């Protein structure tokens, strides 16, 4: 494997990492620290990257696992729900401050879509982020999240259904 330029690696993957962190961590003050931790973990683990998957898939996996680690620590420190309960429900966010609607307003329709997406539980919003915004294939999402491909498809289907209901104002 040819040597990888760390600056280039970070430049090429910073948006992917930032968007993933934003889907997991609504508290903006934590995102920068986690972003740095992700790339520290990437650079430390780079010698173990075997090239069996795309580099972006591997980096996304590192980002997801780093987010999980931070969430576990927050859950442990604040004695809130478990990581599994948080992934399932998403509304009991184990961070102090949830993103405000103003934060999501980066353009009327995109901001509205992102704000609605952020209301979904993480098990739905992360696969949607990876598939529709980052262009990952089902298999890459499955590898990144360490879940079966069938589960990825189910989470995408159910997440889109819930997102559609949110956008139409249907509370059911």
Radius of gyration: 16 Å
Kindly provide the name of the CATH class: Mainly Alpha
Q: CATH superfamily name?
A: PhyR, sigma-like (SL) domain
The rounded distance between the terminal residues' Cα atoms is: 51 Å
Overall structural domain count: 1
Might you state the CATH topology name? Butyryl-CoA Dehydrogenase, subunit A, domain 3
Task: Report on this structure.
The chain has 172 residues and is mostly helical. The protein has a single domain, classed as Butyryl-CoA Dehydrogenase, subunit A, domain 3. The chain has nine helices and no strands. It has helices spanning 6-24, 28-45, 55-78, 83-89, 101-104, 108-118, 122-133, 138-145, 149-168. It starts with 5 loop residues before the first helix and ends with a helix.
Give a topology summary.
Layout: H1 6-24, H2 28-45, H3 55-78, H4 83-89, H5 101-104, H6 108-118, H7 122-133, H8 138-145, H9 149-168
Report a brief summary of the structure:
By secondary structure, the protein is mainly alpha-helical.
Name a few traits of the molecule:
mainly alpha; globular
């Amino acid at each position: 494997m040819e040597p990888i330029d760390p600056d280039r690696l970070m430049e090429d993957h910073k948006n992917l990492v930032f968007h993933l962190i934003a889907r997991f961590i609504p508290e903006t003050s934590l995102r920068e620290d986690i972003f740095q931790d992700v790339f520290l973990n990437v650079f430390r683990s780079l010698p173990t990257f075997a090239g069996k998957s795309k580099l972006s898939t591997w980096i996304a996996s590192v980002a997801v696992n780093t987010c999980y680690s931070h969430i576990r620590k927050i859950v442990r420190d604040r004695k809130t729900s478990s990581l599994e309960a948080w992934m399932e429900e998403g509304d009991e966010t184990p961070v102090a401050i949830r993103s405000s609607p103003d934060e999501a307003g980066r353009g009327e329709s995109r901001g509205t879509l992102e704000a609605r997406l952020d209301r979904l539980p993480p098990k739905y919003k992360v696969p949607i982020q990876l598939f529709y915004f980052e262009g990952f294939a089902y298999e890459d999402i499955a590898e990144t999240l360490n879940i079966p491909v069938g589960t990825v498809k189910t989470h995408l289907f159910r997440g889109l259904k819930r997102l559609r209901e949110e956008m139409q104002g249907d509370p059911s």
